[in-house]
């Protein structure tokens, strides 16, 4: 009887141990899932500073943050702000096309926000002169109008931290570690569309001041009425790239994507990335890719836009002389992390931003493909500081979107699908459907070596 009892007890202990191990395994699996998911409620449960998370990262089960210390100054109050602006050496006067020149074949179409630039106009825009007039968005009647109360407010903004949320994909995240000096010096401007403003009112606290301005914490909301594009991602490129057009009085700006929480004082950012090295434009190096052809391959496999249109986009660049990145190039990489852009609003930087946006308007909204191309076309005239990716990741805390973005055009594999499904954008990407003055059929794109799990 005792032997049977002992055997039963041992079995009970073994079963309890197995169940306990299964519970631990399930808890670890849930922890891994919660740390990788884009669902806000679940991701908020993930403690990325915990020993468990670090252990899982060492085992390769979760992605570890790619961060390193930033060599920042100690005290924002001791930062010396330059009294003089960087001089404009080559380009002295930059003006913008304000009226759309609609082709005769599209005489009935309404003005486009980015206009209808011809291939010849595009080519001429890359030729530097002392006086230039280029397309740069904000064509009359093309959409993206600001309220008068917002126009009046931003006129006072010389130092700007800008962000944007479109189609209700995010809620504003309040910056942390901001000094009193920076709070007084900087305007924190969050550009939103009407869908996002409605979403914020329903899911957050939007306050209105006596002048009619809308606020969420430190962020002053700037409403853009009548979004210029069908795609929210393309709309988001307006405040991101054309910051100097939205806020023309700004001398310096820091752009940060809407899903990010800034955790470094903006004065320290300007000192580290611009003033210390006498730079005027700073952007981070991409974590995985250096060649736009690698980035394009990744975009296609991750369904970031219609595959045949991405191919056509980079075929044009290859035809026009854009070679894959190599160590022989002067830049660290041709592909940036575009979620943070730090710049002084000089004439050459403003021209670069205009030309960068024009490529986004004409081709795919994947701005990481067009950044390196525009830098290549401007050559040594456009100088920028591409800082290490690990520093980039130390500037912010990344929050998941409130919901996943998905558009039917991202799943297109063949051009016929665009025509049959009526999936073509009506107001963006017109360069992909305008006959190109060159033989793109003869273009053979370079082979791509996939250098990372993400790529």
TrEMBL record:
Residue ranges constituting the TOD1/MUCI70 glycosyltransferase-like domain according to the UniProt record: 94-401
Pfam families (alphabetical): TOD1_MUCI70
Keyword Membrane appears in the UniProt entry: yes
Residue intervals passing through the bilayer: 12-33
Keyword flag Membrane: yes
InterPro entries listed in its UniProt record: TOD1_MUCI70, TOD1_MUCI70_glycTrfase_dom
Protein name (record): TOD1/MUCI70 glycosyltransferase-like domain-containing protein
Domain of life, per lineage: Eukaryota
Keyword annotations of the record: Membrane, Transmembrane, Transmembrane helix
